[in-house]
Amino acid sequence: MDSELTLDAVDRRILAALQLQGRITYDELAAQVQLSASAVLRRVRRLEDSGVIAGYAAIVPPHKLGLALTAFVEVHLQRPADASGARIAERFRATVQDWPEVTECVCLSTEMSYLLRVVVTDMAHHGRFMMDTLLQHPGVQECRTSFVLDQIKLQHALPI
Protein backbone atom coordinates (compact mmCIF):
# COMPACT_ATOMS: atom_id res chain seq x y z
CA MET A 1 0.00 0.00 0.00
CA ASP A 2 1.83 3.09 -1.25
CA SER A 3 -0.62 5.78 -0.15
CA GLU A 4 0.40 9.32 0.71
CA LEU A 5 1.03 9.68 4.44
CA THR A 6 1.38 12.94 6.32
CA LEU A 7 4.30 12.78 8.74
CA ASP A 8 4.13 14.70 11.98
CA ALA A 9 7.07 15.66 14.21
CA VAL A 10 6.86 12.40 16.19
CA ASP A 11 6.90 10.30 13.00
CA ARG A 12 9.99 12.21 11.88
CA ARG A 13 11.75 11.60 15.21
CA ILE A 14 10.90 7.90 14.97
CA LEU A 15 12.27 7.73 11.42
CA ALA A 16 15.43 9.62 12.37
CA ALA A 17 16.08 7.20 15.24
CA LEU A 18 15.36 4.07 13.18
CA GLN A 19 17.65 5.21 10.36
CA LEU A 20 20.55 5.45 12.79
CA GLN A 21 19.71 2.38 14.87
CA GLY A 22 17.39 -0.03 13.07
CA ARG A 23 17.54 -2.62 15.87
CA ILE A 24 16.46 -0.27 18.65
CA THR A 25 13.77 -1.75 20.90
CA TYR A 26 10.32 -0.22 20.99
CA ASP A 27 10.87 0.63 24.66
CA GLU A 28 14.09 2.52 23.87
CA LEU A 29 12.46 4.25 20.92
CA ALA A 30 9.45 5.18 23.04
CA ALA A 31 11.74 6.80 25.61
CA GLN A 32 13.48 8.81 22.89
CA VAL A 33 10.27 10.15 21.36
CA GLN A 34 8.39 10.38 24.68
CA LEU A 35 5.49 8.07 23.82
CA SER A 36 4.40 4.68 25.12
CA ALA A 37 5.90 1.61 23.48
CA SER A 38 2.46 0.59 22.17
CA ALA A 39 1.95 4.01 20.55
CA VAL A 40 5.40 3.79 18.95
CA LEU A 41 4.63 0.28 17.68
CA ARG A 42 1.39 1.53 16.07
CA ARG A 43 3.22 4.41 14.41
CA VAL A 44 6.04 2.18 13.13
CA ARG A 45 3.52 -0.31 11.70
CA ARG A 46 1.67 2.57 9.99
CA LEU A 47 4.96 3.83 8.53
CA GLU A 48 5.76 0.30 7.31
CA ASP A 49 2.28 -0.32 5.89
CA SER A 50 2.32 2.98 3.99
CA GLY A 51 5.74 2.25 2.47
CA VAL A 52 7.54 5.10 4.26
CA ILE A 53 9.68 2.41 5.91
CA ALA A 54 10.53 0.09 3.03
CA GLY A 55 12.53 -2.43 5.07
CA TYR A 56 15.46 -3.04 7.39
CA ALA A 57 18.95 -4.17 6.42
CA ALA A 58 22.36 -4.94 7.87
CA ILE A 59 25.12 -2.59 6.73
CA VAL A 60 28.17 -4.64 5.74
CA PRO A 61 31.45 -2.85 4.97
CA PRO A 62 32.62 -4.14 1.55
CA HIS A 63 36.20 -4.77 2.74
CA LYS A 64 34.86 -7.27 5.32
CA LEU A 65 33.84 -9.44 2.34
CA GLY A 66 37.09 -8.95 0.46
CA LEU A 67 35.56 -6.32 -1.84
CA ALA A 68 38.41 -3.82 -1.81
CA LEU A 69 37.70 -1.83 -4.98
CA THR A 70 34.77 0.49 -5.65
CA ALA A 71 34.29 2.23 -8.97
CA PHE A 72 31.70 4.48 -10.51
CA VAL A 73 31.08 3.61 -14.14
CA GLU A 74 29.25 6.03 -16.40
CA VAL A 75 27.51 4.03 -19.11
CA HIS A 76 26.25 5.54 -22.35
CA LEU A 77 23.81 3.43 -24.33
CA GLN A 78 23.37 3.49 -28.09
CA ARG A 79 21.07 6.24 -29.33
CA PRO A 80 19.32 4.84 -32.39
CA ALA A 81 17.51 7.21 -34.72
CA ASP A 82 14.29 5.21 -34.46
CA ALA A 83 12.11 4.39 -31.45
CA SER A 84 14.16 1.33 -30.43
CA GLY A 85 16.07 3.42 -27.87
CA ALA A 86 13.40 2.76 -25.26
CA ARG A 87 13.79 -1.00 -25.77
CA ILE A 88 17.57 -0.73 -25.42
CA ALA A 89 17.17 1.16 -22.14
CA GLU A 90 14.56 -1.31 -20.85
CA ARG A 91 16.85 -4.27 -21.63
CA PHE A 92 19.79 -2.56 -19.92
CA ARG A 93 17.72 -1.73 -16.82
CA ALA A 94 16.51 -5.33 -16.59
CA THR A 95 19.93 -6.87 -17.18
CA VAL A 96 21.76 -4.71 -14.64
CA GLN A 97 19.54 -6.25 -11.93
CA ASP A 98 21.38 -9.56 -12.47
CA TRP A 99 24.91 -8.16 -12.01
CA PRO A 100 25.93 -8.65 -8.35
CA GLU A 101 28.93 -6.34 -8.74
CA VAL A 102 26.55 -3.43 -9.38
CA THR A 103 25.25 -2.23 -6.02
CA GLU A 104 23.56 0.88 -7.38
CA CYS A 105 22.36 2.05 -10.79
CA VAL A 106 20.86 5.45 -11.50
CA CYS A 107 19.62 6.98 -14.73
CA LEU A 108 21.27 10.33 -15.41
CA SER A 109 19.78 13.41 -17.01
CA THR A 110 22.18 12.97 -19.92
CA GLU A 111 20.38 11.10 -22.70
CA MET A 112 20.73 7.30 -22.45
CA SER A 113 23.28 7.54 -19.60
CA TYR A 114 23.52 5.58 -16.37
CA LEU A 115 25.87 5.67 -13.40
CA LEU A 116 26.77 2.35 -11.79
CA ARG A 117 28.43 1.80 -8.43
CA VAL A 118 30.53 -1.31 -8.94
CA VAL A 119 32.09 -3.15 -5.99
CA VAL A 120 34.69 -5.84 -6.73
CA THR A 121 37.63 -7.63 -5.12
CA ASP A 122 40.43 -6.06 -7.16
CA MET A 123 41.42 -4.54 -10.50
CA ALA A 124 41.43 -7.94 -12.23
CA HIS A 125 37.87 -8.58 -11.08
CA HIS A 126 36.88 -5.13 -12.32
CA GLY A 127 38.49 -5.85 -15.69
CA ARG A 128 36.61 -9.14 -16.02
CA PHE A 129 33.33 -7.45 -15.10
CA MET A 130 33.90 -4.73 -17.69
CA MET A 131 35.09 -6.96 -20.53
CA ASP A 132 32.98 -10.07 -19.94
CA THR A 133 29.76 -8.52 -18.63
CA LEU A 134 29.16 -4.81 -19.06
CA LEU A 135 30.76 -4.30 -22.47
CA GLN A 136 29.09 -7.47 -23.77
CA HIS A 137 25.65 -5.91 -23.32
CA PRO A 138 24.40 -5.10 -26.84
CA GLY A 139 23.12 -1.64 -25.91
CA VAL A 140 26.33 -0.33 -24.32
CA GLN A 141 28.12 2.17 -26.53
CA GLU A 142 30.70 3.68 -24.17
CA CYS A 143 31.84 3.48 -20.53
CA ARG A 144 33.97 5.74 -18.35
CA THR A 145 35.25 4.48 -15.01
CA SER A 146 36.35 6.47 -11.97
CA PHE A 147 37.90 4.55 -9.08
CA VAL A 148 37.27 5.47 -5.46
CA LEU A 149 40.54 6.39 -3.75
CA ASP A 150 39.03 7.22 -0.37
CA GLN A 151 35.45 7.21 0.85
CA ILE A 152 34.95 10.49 2.68
CA LYS A 153 31.29 10.10 3.58
CA LEU A 154 28.73 7.34 3.27
CA GLN A 155 25.44 8.11 4.92
CA HIS A 156 22.46 5.81 4.68
CA ALA A 157 20.19 8.02 6.77
CA LEU A 158 18.15 10.60 4.86
CA PRO A 159 17.82 14.15 6.18
CA ILE A 160 14.55 14.43 8.08
UniProtKB/TrEMBL annotation:
Q: Which InterPro entries match?
A: ArsR-like_HTH (IPR011991), AsnC-type_HTH_dom (IPR000485), Dimeric_a/b-barrel (IPR011008), Tscrpt_reg_AsnC-like (IPR019888), Tscrpt_reg_AsnC/Lrp_C (IPR019887), WH-like_DNA-bd_sf (IPR036388), WH_DNA-bd_sf (IPR036390)
What biological-process GO terms show up in the record? Answer: regulation of DNA-templated transcription; response to amino acid
Q: Name one GO cellular component term.
A: cytosol
- Domain named HTH asnC-type: residues: 7-68
Ordered alphabetically, the record's keywords are:
DNA-binding, Transcription, Transcription regulation
Task: Provide an example Pfam family for this protein.
Answer: HTH_24
Q: From the UniProt record, which GO molecular function terms apply?
A: sequence-specific DNA binding
Q: Which PROSITE patterns match?
A: HTH_ASNC_2 (PS50956)
Keyword Transcription annotated: yes
Q: Which PANTHER family match?
A: LEUCINE-RESPONSIVE REGULATORY PROTEIN (PTHR30154), TRANSCRIPTIONAL REGULATORY PROTEIN (PTHR30154:SF46)
In Swiss-Prot or TrEMBL terms, this protein is called Lrp/AsnC family leucine-responsive transcriptional regulator
Which species is this UniProt entry from? Sphaerotilus montanus
Source organism lineage? Bacteria, Pseudomonadati, Pseudomonadota, Betaproteobacteria, Burkholderiales
